[in-house]
């Protein structure tokens, strides 16, 4: 793609304000995915572009290189000048806001950038925070510090963007120093910056290809205020782990003690050793392929023998799903070592993905221990017990695990040792779930003297709604289907200590 750091030419457009009613529950639920909680206030601006005065305050322009103004009951921005950005601003100044708008690409060319801007200064063309999506499925957040472009969240592939001549909903969050971009209801990017505290909102568009245009229609714009003091909730993430390469019980106990995971999970698998010899291309060795989990801790040591030439990557995968042809499909996460020189942390969905490549300081033939925690849509990665990255945004989907080897030549080897995975669910207060690794009997009451009520199939998870001590002295769990199972034949996870006692 032609998305490069560039000097942008800005066209400033001004507009008016109209105050309207309350927040939107749907938007507030969507914003719950972000790192920083955001509470919506009232809608402080909601222009009606279809009204007779819908264009009042929005400057219009119609030249050989751009069009700005109301067209077909929408606000339209068309830009035919590559490496230039046309932006339209509303004259009112806002501080903490959430912008919601529908964007429709009208032009054919996919290599473009368009979206919204917040906290822009109408007198300074290089100001404000810009939230971009593109016709070919990329997203970005950036700004300017003086004349220097500042990349806050670089171009990343987003499978949530409907590509081409389509409509997408953009939600842009500008709250304190927290910025977030949601696309069609899904969190795409997050960033932090304190360069700008207030300013105008508006629309932006650019094209990256000579002889083409970025022609974008904007409609149903709503600008929300945010209410209350918004404070980022942080979990203290330890910089080092002591038990990263020990027994899984010791590693899990340390993670629980530091608050990185909650107690009440369960081991998924252990395997001492597995390896692959390199050929040209990619190879995958599955681990626990019949166990599908999203929230996990994965740990293992990588031993790499490099081929005589070319690049080789070796590491671990989780949240893997394969299609009928054995190709990776959705929800995957991988951490791989690249030639003992760098490490790639990567999340993917089909052909789409987002990657961070970080330097790795180890000896050429030294083993490398990887431990990562995947919970909801976040990943935290430790290398040899040292924190590498935290709050890495990932696809939230369940799957299994494996070893991944990519190589440009034969003659290398990728070996995993002391590998294990642990189910580490994110618990909701008051919620306890029961499951079993095999089919187990359910009863109509808390004891074997009660009638059988079918079986709980292996892998099925049901919520526990009550507990009772049976005549056998064991705890019996009442499931959401009103049947009962005995404590020694199921695994329970969650806030199980606070499940209410009931009469059987």
How would you describe the overall organization of this protein?
- With 504 residues, this protein is mostly beta strands.
- Strands 1, 2, 3, 4, 6, 11, 12, 13 and 15 form a 9-stranded antiparallel beta sheet that branches.
- The longest helix has 10 residues.
Short description:
It contains two helices and 34 strands. It has helices at residues 25-31, 248-257, and strands at residues 40-45, 61-62, 66-71, 74-79, 86-89, 97-105, 112-120, 129-133, 138-145, 148-157, 167-175, 178-183, 186-192, 200-207, 214-226, 266-277, 281-287, 296-305, 312-320, 332-338, 342-349, 352-359, 368-375, 378-383, 386-393, 400-407, 413-423, 432-435, 440-443, 452-456, 462-469, 475-479, 484-486, 491-494. The longest helix is centred in the middle third of the chain and has 10 residues, at 248-257.
Mean pLDDT: 86
Number of strands: 34
- Proportion in helices: under 10%
Low-pLDDT parts are 1-23
Distance between the termini: 65 Å
Can you tell me the overall shape?
globular
| Helix-and-strand structural type | mainly beta
Question: What is the makeup of the main sheet?
Answer: 9 strands, antiparallel
What's the helix count? 2
Beta-strand level of the residues, as a percent range? over 45%
Q: What radius of gyration results from the CA coordinates?
A: 27 Å
Q: SSE layout and pairings?
A:
Layout: H1 25-31, E1 40-45, E2 61-62, E3 66-71, E4 74-79, E5 86-89, E6 97-105, E7 112-120, E8 129-133, E9 138-145, E10 148-157, E11 167-175, E12 178-183, E13 186-192, E14 200-207, E15 214-226, H2 248-257, E16 266-277, E17 281-287, E18 296-305, E19 312-320, E20 332-338, E21 342-349, E22 352-359, E23 368-375, E24 378-383, E25 386-393, E26 400-407, E27 413-423, E28 432-435, E29 440-443, E30 452-456, E31 462-469, E32 475-479, E33 484-486, E34 491-494
Antiparallel strand pairs: 1-15, 2-3, 3-4, 4-15, 5-14, 6-11, 6-15, 7-8, 7-14, 8-9, 9-10, 11-12, 12-13, 16-27, 17-26, 18-23, 18-27, 19-20, 19-26, 20-21, 21-22, 23-24, 24-25, 28-31, 28-34, 29-30, 31-32, 32-33
């Amino acid at each position: 793609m032609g998305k490069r750091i560039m000097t942008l030419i800005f066209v400033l457009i001004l507009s008016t304000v109209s105050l309207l009613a309350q927040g939107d529950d749907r938007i507030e639920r969507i914003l719950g995915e972000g790192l920083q909680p955001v509470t919506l206030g009232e809608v402080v601006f909601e222009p009606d572009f279809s009204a007779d005065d819908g264009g009042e305050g929005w400057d219009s322009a119609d030249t050989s290189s751009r069009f700005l103004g109301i067209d077909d009951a929408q606000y339209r921005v068309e830009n035919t000048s590559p490496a230039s950005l046309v932006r339209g601003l509303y004259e009112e100044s806002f501080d903490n806001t959430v912008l919601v708008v529908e964007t429709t690409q009208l032009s054919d060319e996919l290599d473009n950038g368009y979206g919204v801007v917040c906290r822009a200064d109408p007198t300074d063309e290089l100001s404000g925070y810009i939230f971009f999506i593109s016709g070919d499925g990329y997203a970005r957040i950036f700004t300017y510090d003086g004349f220097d472009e500042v990349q806050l969240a670089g171009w990343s592939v987003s499978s949530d963007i409907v590509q081409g001549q389509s409509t997408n909903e953009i939600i842009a969050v500008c709250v304190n120093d927290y910025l977030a971009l949601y696309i069609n209801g899904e969190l795409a990017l997050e960033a932090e910056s304190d360069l700008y505290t207030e300013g105008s909102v508006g629309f932006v568009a650019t094209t990256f290809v000579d002889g083409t245009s970025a022609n974008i229609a904007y409609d149903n714009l709503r600008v929300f205020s945010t209410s209350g003091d918004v404070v980022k909730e942080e979990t203290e993430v330890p910089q080092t782990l002591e038990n990263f390469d020990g027994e899984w019980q010791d590693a899990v106990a340390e993670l629980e003690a530091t608050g990185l995971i909650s107690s009440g999970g369960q081991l998924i698998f252990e395997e001492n050793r597995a390896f692959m010899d390199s050929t040209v291309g990619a190879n995958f060795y599955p681990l626990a392929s019949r166990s599908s989990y999203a929230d996990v801790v994965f740990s293992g040591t990588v031993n790499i023998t490099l081929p005589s030439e070319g690049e080789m990557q070796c590491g671990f995968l989780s949240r893997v799903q394969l299609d009928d042809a054995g190709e990776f499909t959705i929800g995957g996460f991988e951490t791989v070592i690249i030639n003992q020189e760098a490490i790639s942390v990567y999340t993917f969905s089909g052909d789409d993905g987002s990657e961070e490549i970080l330097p790795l300081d180890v000896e050429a033939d030294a083993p490398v221990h990887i431990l990562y925690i995947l919970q909801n849509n976040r990943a935290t990665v430790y290398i040899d017990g040292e924190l590498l990255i935290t709050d890495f945004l990932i696809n939230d989907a369940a799957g299994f695990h494996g070893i991944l080897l990519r190589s440009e030549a034969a003659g290398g080897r990728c070996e995993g040792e002391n590998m294990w995975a642990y189910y580490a669910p994110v618990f909701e207060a008051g919620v306890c779930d029961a499951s079993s690794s095999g089919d187990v009997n359910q009863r109509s009451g808390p004891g074997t003297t009660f009638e059988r009520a079918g079986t709980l199939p292996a892998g099925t998870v049901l919520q526990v709604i009550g507990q009772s001590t049976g005549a056998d002295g064991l705890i019996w769990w009442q499931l959401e289907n009103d049947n009962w199972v005995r404590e020694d034949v199921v695994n329970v996870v969650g806030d199980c200590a606070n499940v209410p006692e009931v009469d059987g």
